[in-house]
């Protein structure tokens, strides 16, 4: 069998495997696909009649790599027929029977169709090189996707490599001993207090693994996602890992709209143990546990509050550190509440540029209006509440009537095997017969008369 020599094939495969962190078998598979495309290009240059090949024309061709001999062969699988109409896909029965007398029409044979060394051509070589580069990139994307698909929504250790526009390109690894791959940290996912210098290390939250053809890094990581705060607390507080304390909700504003307002997070915690203080467990002795989280987030302010099933209590806790006088649930259906605070607590409850109340609303899911207790007009607000209820009454009554109509609907027909009376009289007769039978039954010995 003839062969096209590829001097240095073994060293080339080893080098590509090391540089791109790909298995040697994956490199060989990419090289076979590239050489087949190069052979297709060579065949197209020989087509002088101008007719092209369709996409499936070379489906019966394959490339065989010989790493030991450092070369490759092109093989074609052809069908045995009486009369040949396409010599690339078919071979004459008479020709095959000269070698194998038992051959029959419809059988297939594999033939060596490798071109001569000098016929492969410069254009075919260029095509092979371009396709090889593309196939290697595809292999890398596929490998990264398989490696990190199960690590989405987890936290990884990352190292700063370089900067592209406003994004930071970081190196991350899926585990100890695994090669590093590139990940992108966009501007919107960065923290304003971070110093992204070369080789600096950070904990990052893996938000997404891109699929398909994607230029640049496939991994999108974040320092601003609330999932990073959850991970840091779970890693620092043993009670959370042991499921004694649970994190109910997190509201984070890592990139405030104004530079004068720093990043801030509110986290609501709860416990099923009566003797455990969930807030104290997260803060730690003298703030030791929460300080570790704050340091990792470069000084971000964190409020840990106690979750409550009572909306009024939960809202009051969420506005910490402000002291709340009263919480009025004005519209439970619309989830709107008035929070009354003293005059000296107004600015603290609202927060700088409204950050505190904004985060509390996001944490609880309620629309919160902060009111001055001394200036609050109970009568006017009660009238507004009454008018709101009056406006909603027709809709409620209509809904109630619809429910009654549904209850008055005829019952569903009985399923097979159930009793189905023909009419009311027949049903009454059967019931009367049953009662008569019961009256005729003798009493048991222990049954009282």
Summarize the structure in words.
The structure is a single chain. This protein has 449 residues and is an alpha+beta fold. 37% of the residues lie in helices and 23% in strands. The chain has 13 helices and 16 strands. It has helices at 9-20, 24-46, 93-97, 122-148, 226-236, 238-241, 278-283, 288-296, 311-318, 346-350, 355-364, 378-408, 424-440, and strands at 4-5, 61-66, 71-81, 90-92, 108-112, 155-164, 167-172, 181-185, 201-209, 219-222, 245-253, 264-271, 301-306, 326-331, 336-341, 367-372. Strands 1, 2, 3, 4 and 5 form a five-stranded mixed sheet that branches. The chain has a five-stranded mixed barrel with strand order 6-7-8-10-9. The chain has a three-stranded mixed sheet with strand order 11-12-13, with helices on both faces. Strand 2 (61-66) and strand 3 form a beta hairpin. The longest helix is centred in the last third of the chain and has 31 residues, at 378-408. It is elongated, with a radius of gyration of 38 Å. Mean pLDDT is 84; it is low at 412-431 and 433-449.
H/I helix tally: 13
Order of helices and strands: EHHEEEHEHEEEEEHHEEHHEHEEHHEHH
Question: What characteristic shape results from the CA principal axes?
Answer: elongated
Q: Using only CA atoms, what is the Rg?
A: 38 Å
**Low-confidence segments:** 412-431, 433-449
Mean pLDDT: 84
Largest sheet: 5 strands, mixed
Give the terminus-to-terminus CA distance: 108 Å
Helical residue percent band: 25-40%
What percentage of the residues does DSSP assign to strands (E)?
15-25%
